[in-house]
Amino acid sequence: MNTTLANKNVVVIGGTSGIGLAVAKLIAQRGANLTIVSRSVERLEKAAKEIGGNVQIGTIDTLDENSVKEFFANRNDIDHLLNFAGDSMGGGVMDTDISQARNAMESKFWGQFYVGRYGGVKIKSGGSLTFTGGSGPRPHQAIATVAANAGVSLLVESLAKELAPVRVNVVSPYYVDTPMWSGMVDAERKALFDNVAKQLPIGRIAKIEDVAPTFLHVFESTYLNGVDIPVNGGAVLQTIE
Length: 241
Description:
With 241 residues, the protein is α/β, with parallel strands linked by helices. 41% of the residues lie in helices and 19% in strands.
């Protein structure tokens, strides 16, 4: 067993499904003292059982500044903090539902802002803070999400200076086949994925296992700091429509 994280205290926000859960499993396998955090106790308990071992759970709502502040109030021993919480949505300026756009901005940018502000100061010297962003879509395809992701990238640059020597980075996937898409009709989801895949140089949509190891690489690479790492199959090389 890889024990590179043995006795390290790692907190994963949004570690109950998708990429967050996969990363939490990898962290647990490396011997860390793992805490997974989310809004739903039921989902936390289910995820903890799936991960196995001595996993701690905690509740937080990253859309609520006070909730984030309270969660971190009595924590001073974090080695690595990762955040996967945040919603996405599609649509340009003219056809976007305003309430959905606001929610995407709130959860993707402000949620991570709160985590950086109140959680970043609780990370030990030499530790790391890793956010989740996004890369690939053009503004007219998902204006609120693209704007929020740009904000997160700038947030990382600021925090890498403000929290030094704590390292701060963001990993930015593109389309990944996760439970996030389960609300779509199967045929529609397949058509969407097929359309994007044929335009990617790599020729396929990412699977969770394609993306999850990148997060470990980021916080285990002790000289990586202040950067936005795209994991998008070459999407920036194409014009995805």
